[in-house]
Design a protein that fits this description.
The complex is a heterodimer of chains A (574) and B (299).
Chain A lengths: L1 H46 L12 E9 L4 H6 L10 H10 L1 E10 L3 H11 L5 E4 L1 H9 L7 H7 L2 H9 L9 E2 L2 E2 L2 E2 L12 E5 H6 L8 H13 L11 E4 L11 H7 L7 E3 L5 E3 L4 H15 L12 H9 L3 E6 L3 H4 L2 H7 L5 E5 L4 E3 L6 E4 L6 H17 L2 H7 L22 H15 L4 H7 L6 H17 L5 H7 L4 H10 L3 E3 L8 H22 L7 H27 L2
Parallel strand pairs in A: 1-2, 8-11, 13-15
Antiparallel strand pairs in A: 3-14, 4-5, 6-14, 7-11, 7-12, 9-10
Helix pairs in contact in A: 17-19, 17-21, 19-20, 22-23
Chain B lengths: L1 H4 L1 H7 L2 H12 L10 E2 L11 E2 L3 H8 L3 H31 L4 H12 L6 H11 L6 H8 L13 H27 L3 H9 L4 H24 L8 H7 L5 H4 L2 H11 L3 H30 L5
Antiparallel strand pairs in B: 1-2
The chains are: A alpha/beta (574), B mainly alpha (299).
Chain lengths: 574, 299
Amino acid sequence: MKWKSRSISGIVLTCLVLVVSMAFSSCNKGAEEKQVTTEKNGTNALQKEIDPFGKYDETVVLTTIVGRDVAGGDFEAYKDPDETFENNRWVKLIKEKLNIKVDYVAIIDKAQLEQKRKIMIASGSIPDFFTSNDVEISQLTRAEAIQPVGDIFDNYASEMVSSLYDMGGNSIWVPTTLKGERMAIPNVGAGEAMNQAKMLWIRRDWLRNLELEEPKTLDDLINVATQFTKNDPDQDGKNNTYGIGLTSDISSVRSFMTGIFNSYEAYPYIWLKDNSGELYYGLLDPNVKKALEGMSKLYEDGVLDVEFAIKDDNKIKEDIASGKVGIISSFHAGALQLGLGSLKENDPDSDFIAIKLPAKTTIPADNPAAVVISKECDNPEAVVKIMNLGAEMYYKSEEADREYYIQNEHGLPGLTLFPAPQPLVVGKNPKNSILINEALKAGTDDPEAFYNSVDTLVPKGDFLAVYGNVTGYINNKTPAKYPWYLLFGPEGSELVLDDIAKNNLYIQNAYMGSPTQTMIKKQEVLNKLQDETILRIIMGEDSIDKYDKLVEDWKKLGGEQITEEVNQWVKENQ
Amino acid sequence: MKFLKSNHSILHLMLIPGVIVVFIFRYIPMAGVIMAFQDFLPGKGLFGKQEWVGLDNFIYLFTLPDSKTVLFNTLYIASLKIVFSFAVPIVFAILINEVYNRHIKKAVQTIIYLPHFLSWVVVSGVMIDILSPKTGIVNQLLELIGIEPIFFLGNNFWFPIILVISDVWKGFGYGTIIYLAAITSIDSALYEAAEIDGANRWHKIRYITIPGMTMVIVLIGVLKLGQVLNAGFDQVFNLYSPIVYRSGDIIDTFVYRLGIVQAQFSVATAAGLLKGIISCSLVALSYYLADKYADYRLF
């Protein structure tokens, strides 16, 4: 019996090995075939003349991946009967106008996009084009898996697209330029660095209850936050509020702690320029020590949320919605991010406002997200053509088209179906906000007529949709529209953002290159070191003296080397 | 075709789907261990022209300042878990066995088995709430008896203990069932004989139930040895934060941050491979012990 069972499992295993080895050999065949076609198409592409909107004679297939709200009920609600994620209005339009077939090899749930993309890159089979990030771009460049895009972009970008990129300034190409070659097309407008500027979202009704002014200095801020904690700002007779909300995320770009550090004029996690033009890591600045000292005092007094170290985004949203948090330092879209709509629903008297920090805010280097084009792609210019078409439709299309492709009658963005990054106007939201406030002041009944009467780069769809949301709150007090009012209304956060941008109230990360070799290698160790030490100091587990040891360890564990590499980059890029 | 006629052969054929799944998802990915010996560059592909670096990744791993803490945490948390998740179900199985009321017995069994089916994401959400120093029920109870609130999930002394307690709570119902099965298989004639000889309940437990379970106890104990390096990724990942890194960061979470978050595939693979080798030898050792002390053989 024993012998028999072995022989059977032996047979099974042999079969499996055979099947698998067959599968692998057929893979190889596929690769060979592809190479042959590559050469053929390559010559074709060379013969074509340059036309930013030129339609191909033969259908060009471009593969890509994209992150979508796969469960997205929104799409279900507004799609055409025969429309699918894969074959949507934009894909059809691109096929019709340019004869380019956008082929999604994968549509990935937004939340998992980055992980799935990493795995795809690691497996060595990347699609023709896709949006990637800084670390990946540098890895892909080293692996010679992507092609330079500079010339293609210069040659094929339409006037509209070029002007949008010019508006982004010279620095926009810096993060994706490796060894002098532009390796990826940055996302202009979308996710621009300025959008990450921190501000303070603060309960104005609590300020009123306690007869306090909006904080203008650090001392004001500490005073207000302390009173929010101790003096029962919600006047329910219970000690159930705290001053400043934070989460366990303490060092990412989105962290709520950054703005608090910044209020102390401390700028950890970004690279600063000293007087001689050398770059140094913000963590090493003595102000960080002062900030840590101050924050550990606040923590001891319960002004900082005692449990922040284990709170994630959802937990903090719960706290905000149940009216426990007085101040939170988020970015311009904080009202949406923090779910202030549900707070308004629970407590109609609640009232938030965004104000600027008492000091300059951190902003990151320009957006690291950018489009890479695979080395295997035979028609790289097709990607630029798609972007041209997108911009044209966004800014210049006819009414009906705009409604269909950009923002449909439900206020839902058809734009999200666009397969490539959309070139956007820089500073679109503040511009839109100014426009909306002009319209509000003029008391117009017909926003469309108002829009047509002004000269602006803000897309009509954006203006009309947001104007509708803001007036929706003003007229009907709909809680769901409340965040929009806080963003774009008369005292909205977008105007604060405008103020920060125009009056230079920000400090941008001075290192704009892609991560250096040592950064890639040591980042995890250094992150862990700084996150842990900073948390321990704030929470009083370690004394403030540990900061000096942190600085020392940071230098020893690779920081010194990184600083050298960073300054080497400065020399090369000046 | 003769072997198809035998009953056992049919049973073996039914193994095939399982074998295929294991082969595809466990054996084929093993090819990836070559990454541990390369300076793996994503983009060149798994079988692309990667640079070979020998044991560099392993050396790097051991020079990391955290590797000792991480290893210690893993061993500490896992051994505590092994001890308690081993002992608690035995005691509980014996206790349940002594309950005469069948309904209570079944009800208790079902209830303690229930948490086994909850995922750690759910359990950790609940735990964060009930252990909250300000609003959590546990600390409110402590306050009633005059103890200062404890930040269980933010305290390096308590964190591993909470891990162990919650893990035992979640898993002991499942363990209990195995022991109960062992107890059920004890010949009831033995109990009757003991009763005639004047044995009380304690005597019966001491001289019949426990000896009757020995085989299963030894077997499970030995098999658990193979898990010494498994401190439980799901659980730790959902509960930890930088403040408890020094007591809660285990090999798996470390590899996750290194490999998935920072995209350092080579180093992460090296760490994973190392863990695999040690676990594998421990399993081999435990198999040898199981054979020696419990007469348990698979092959």
